[in-house]
């Protein structure tokens, strides 16, 4: 069995990714298992760059093959932002609800409903050698925030051809379509082939 480090402290991401890895003979360990809490500055301008910063850091620190995910939402009515700044954008509001209201208002005002989530996964197996796997899911901003599953912007994102938000889908259902599961499946195919 090969050991692989997932460089993340985000509980929700870990749950989603572990569910996919469970089907394969790969042992996944996380920062928590190694008692690592420090993370590098994510100062890249793209998801790919930030994912690489994290996977290189994890590999250099532990010597274990390491992957990291960087992800976010891009919203048409906000000129396709916040993108790589998704976490900081949400944290700048008093609460998630206030942030969601502001996004929904701007969507209605500009009559632009489209949005997408993107994940970039970087895998570092040797010093300065990394591979990138991308995943994307298209959809729309909902009329109002709905659902109790998932995390982040899930309550206001309705995937294309669905009439529920991502937060109304459980982990198994989200994993059938999500940006993260698309990127992780590419990573696993790379690892097992
Ligand atoms: P990071 O990849 O840890 O920098 O975080 C990206 C941020 O984007 C998260 O904190 C969430 O706010 C948002 N995000 C990323 N993936 C998802 C998702 O699957 N659902 C909802 N929000 C997400």
Q: Characteristics of this structure?
A:
193 residues; alpha/beta; Maf protein; seven-stranded mixed sheet; 7 strands; 36% helix; globular; binds inosinic acid
Tell me what the structure shows.
By secondary structure, this protein is of the alpha/beta class. It has one domain (4-192): Alpha-Beta Complex (Maf protein). It is 36% helix and 26% strand. The chain contains 6 helices and 7 strands; from the N terminus they run E-H-E-H-E-E-H-H-E-E-E-H-H. Strands 1, 2, 3, 4, 5, 6 and 7 form a 7-stranded mixed sheet that branches. A hairpin with a 2-residue loop joins strand 5 (114-126) and strand 6 (129-141). Helix 5 (171-177) packs across helix 6. The longest helix has 16 residues, at 47-62. It is globular. The two termini are 14 Å apart. Bound molecules: inosinic acid.
Reconstruct the topology from this structure:
Elements (H helix, E strand, L loop, with lengths): L1 E5 L4 H11 L4 E5 L16 H16 L3 E10 L5 E2 L3 H6 L4 H15 L3 E13 L2 E13 L15 E3 L11 H7 L1 H14 L1
Parallel strand pairs: 1-2, 1-3
Antiparallel strand pairs: 3-4, 3-5, 5-6, 6-7
The structure holds inosinic acid.
